[in-house]
Amino acid sequence: MQPVGIAVDPNGDLWVADSGNGRVLRFARPFDSGQKFGQRANLVIGQSGFNIKITDPTRVNMSRPYGIAHTVEGQLLVSDIVHNRVLLFRKSLSGQYSNGQQASVVFGQRDFTSTAIGGDETRFAVPMHIATDTDDRLYVADSLNRRIAIFDRVLSAPNNAPPAVSLPFVTGNNDRLGTVQGITVSSRTGELWVADTSNNRVVRFPRFDLLALNPAASAVLTTPAQPLAVATDAADNLLVADGTNRVAMYYPGLTAVSAAHFLRRRVSPGMVAALYPLSIRFGEETSVFSALPLPKELADFEVLVNDSPAPLYFVSPTQINFYVPMNVEQGSLAEFIVQRKSTKQILASGLLDIGVATPSFFTTTQNGQGQIAAINEDGSINTNTNGIARGGVVQLFATGQGFIPDAPPDGEAPTGPVCGRDEHR
Questions:
Q1: Residue 386 CA to chain centroid, in angstroms?
Q2: Is residue 363 part of a domain?
Q3: pTM, full prediction
Q4: Per the domain annotation, does 195 fall within a domain?
Q5: Are 165 and 124 within one domain?
Q6: Are both 135 and 276 inside the same structural domain?
Q7: Sheet harboring 3-8: ordered strands across?
Q8: Statement to judge: residues 308 and 219 lie in one domain
Q9: Domain, as residue range, for 125
Q10: Are the CB atoms for 137 and 190 separated by under 8 Å?
């Protein structure tokens, strides 16, 4: 009744905070059972049996379990919002749990029978979701105290331990957290995501070892409705359950510039552009196209522009150069997605403004600085010491001319002259 918190332990078992019944239930590897409906729990924690409900505060009993987390070796942590505490349940020496077993350690209260709400550093006020990291630290969304309490090395912590770090603020003393409810820690980066529920935002903090130097948030995402719970998937993408009865997924962002001048301008149809990820890496491979027509997949990467793959010049961990499709609508917001071709894993996405034209010349330094790239009539590179004679012909290279009605297919070389804008009219 009223299941709120869920977690999967290192063995693949599913744990559910059956809040209305004052207990936590374990379901053994539910996807391996072959049974889609009516699976039965094989363990109960928080009550002495499956058919008993006692909510008095003890080592055994819980009133309203809410958040669930596990240590690296699968020890169980549960928040109890009515008794304002978090309990640690240890496995036996044989590595097992037993029905109705006693808690080993209590956080947020001085003992196992106290329930008082409090605002000092060792007390909680309705602790909701909890999380752990790869060093067995405990992260608690201390909701009514409007803070995140972080406890170091919980397996060796005593009862009523003080937190190692307390996070009440987001970007400064004038930006306090609201009623915090959801919390998760990335297993890949150690970064902390917090559902700042009453402020309608999700906040990211740096990993634990950086918090002492800079406890300010590293990112703030405004949400249209109250975020209730947060999680990250295997690719470290953020999932948010909110008050509109939905789960929203957030991917890392993208930014794009002209691959010629690298200035912050709008991309335009037919432009050679460079995509950059924000705060992540696309991967670890670097690859360059080898022949025309340009490939629409390179090193298992593809760039989708409004769901259509774009031709690729170059991919690397931090940059992708590609051809903006000629048919993308000017004056629109286009969706750009970088994904792995083989798995369809989305690595980053963004909505980018499409301009009419973004003219720019390529340079010899290939970074938008220095001399414009030019080739003399004899095929040599034009330089200060290798100029072109008056009356000679020099080749320049540019991009960002905008839409051309009779342009060749995206990524293909023209087979003859292509009309310009004025000539076409």
A1: 51
A2: no
A3: 0.82
A4: yes
A5: yes
A6: no
A7: 3-8, 14-18, 23-27, 43-45
A8: no
A9: 3-250
A10: no
